[in-house]
Structures are given as structure tokens and as C-alpha cells.
Write a sequence for this structure.
């Protein structure tokens, strides 16, 4: 059974700092990994999607890396801003064909990020 | 209107009530999902519909009943819920199960 762990559970940094959020997963047979952002009481916004064959993806100040063999991904946020404050969720999609399990995203509990002005 | 929308955004119901949550997507996707997000727990997949057929039921109690009349609409019918069912219910859509999932804003459900 796939399990996803995110460390740290909460992080508070001053504005302008570069930071790294960590995600680890127990089963390396994944199809892709997705990072999301969730604002309080709101839905999820997709940030980056990394296919299992890729090593990293970049979007603006965000860079996500994937090391499938070791079961790890990191989300790097450069020059953090107060508007980056949110919960960041990591989710992996299984690579088992058939039976509906290929549809399943397994989520971590998230990292609550606070960027202080 | 674009993206994934959900109504209502907030719902308070008693344990004997019957209510429905609605999700609509305008992205041309053919897979739709219901997730439950409880406090202090990871998001949990409840149901998956692909091409309007249910392809996954993640051991969800029968007091939750999904319906997918077409590829753009998804409902979650609720009856005789328990207080522990209070949570944020999120709908998502994607292309045929393999691609990114896009989420709606959620319905905050409180069961009294």
C-alpha cells in the first residue's frame, strides 16, 4: 500500500528566503507525482506534474525534482513571498494497470508554509 | 464559466436529512473524482468515474451515493450521515485517469 510522507509538517520563514519542501513515498512504481497548493478552506491548485520518466519540472519560482528509485521528491521555492503562504500537498499516482488503481492519487498530509513579511 | 465548480460551498445538515453535492467541469475531461478531506488526515479518494462509469469505489459507506449522468456532471447524494462525516468534499476531473487532476473549491459539510 502506497504511503506518502511530507516533511516538515509546518514551516515558517521570512520573506525572500529560498526553501525546500520534502515528499517521500514507499512504492517507487509510480506513474507521476503532482504538487498542489491549498489555501485555507479552499480546493487544490495544481502546481507541477512530474512524469515518472522525468527528473524535474519548473514553473516560475517553483522547481520540483523527482528521484523515483529512492522514493523522494522536493519542491523548491525561490525568493518566497507572503502570498506563497498555504498548505503544499504532494500526491503520487500508481502505475498498476487495470482494476481502477491507476486512477488513484495517494496524498501526503501536506506542509503548512507561512512566509512572514 | 471555466474549470471545476462545486455547489453548495457550505452545507449544514442533520443526521436524518438527505442532500446532494454537485460538481460540474467545463474542461472537456472524461474522468471525475470525489475526495474527502478531514482534519489532520490526508485527502482520501472516494469514487472515480471514467466515461460515466464508476471504476473505483474506495470502500465508502453506502450512505454516500455517487451519480454521474454525463461527463460534465457529478453528484454525491448524502443520507443518514454521521457527525464524523463532517469534512471538506472535493471534486476533481482529468483526462482518462492518467493525466493531471484539476480540483474544485470544495463543499464544507457539517453534520449535526
Amino acid at each position: 500500500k502506497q504511503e506518502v510522507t511530507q516533511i516538515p509538517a509546518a514551516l515558517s520563514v521570512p520573506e525572500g528566503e529560498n526553501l525546500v519542501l520534502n515528499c517521500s513515498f514507499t512504492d517507487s512504481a509510480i506513474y507521476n507525482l503532482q504538487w498542489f497548493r491549498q489555501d485555507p478552506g479552499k480546493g487544490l491548485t495544481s502546481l507541477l506534474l512530474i512524469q515518472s520518466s522525468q527528473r524535474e519540472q519548473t514553473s516560475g519560482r517553483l522547481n520540483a525534482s523527482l528521484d523515483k528509485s529512492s522514493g523522494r521528491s522536493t519542491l523548491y521555492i525561490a525568493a518566497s513571498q507572503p502570498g506563497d503562504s498555504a498548505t503544499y500537498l504532494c500526491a503520487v499516482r500508481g502505475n498498476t494497470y487495470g482494476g481502477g488503481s491507476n486512477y488513484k492519487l495517494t496524498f501526503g498530509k501536506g506542509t503548512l508554509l507561512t512566509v512572514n513579511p | 464559466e471555466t474549470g471545476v465548480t462545486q455547489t453548495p460551498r457550505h452545507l449544514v445538515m442533520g443526521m436524518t436529512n438527505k442532500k446532494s453535492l454537485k460538481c460540474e467541469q467545463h474542461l472537456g475531461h472524461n474522468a471525475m473524482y470525489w475526495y474527502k478531506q478531514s482534519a489532520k488526515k490526508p485527502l482520501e479518494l472516494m469514487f472515480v468515474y471514467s466515461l460515466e462509469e464508476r471504476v473505483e469505489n474506495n470502500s465508502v459507506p453506502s450512505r454516500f451515493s455517487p451519480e454521474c449522468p454525463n461527463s460534465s456532471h457529478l453528484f454525491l447524494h448524502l443520507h443518514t450521515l454521521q457527525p464524523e462525516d463532517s469534512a471538506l468534499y472535493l471534486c476533481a476531473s482529468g483526462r482518462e485517469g492518467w493525466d493531471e487532476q484539476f480540483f474544485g473549491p470544495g463543499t464544507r459539510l457539517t453534520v449535526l
Notes: The interface with chain A takes residues 4, 6, 31, 33, 40-43, 45, 48, 50, 55-56, 58, 88, 90, 92, 97-98, 100-106, 108 of chain B (CB under 8 Å). The mean pLDDT of chain B is 90. Residues 88 and 108 of chain B are 4 Å apart (CA to CA). The two ends of chain B are 33 Å apart (CA to CA).
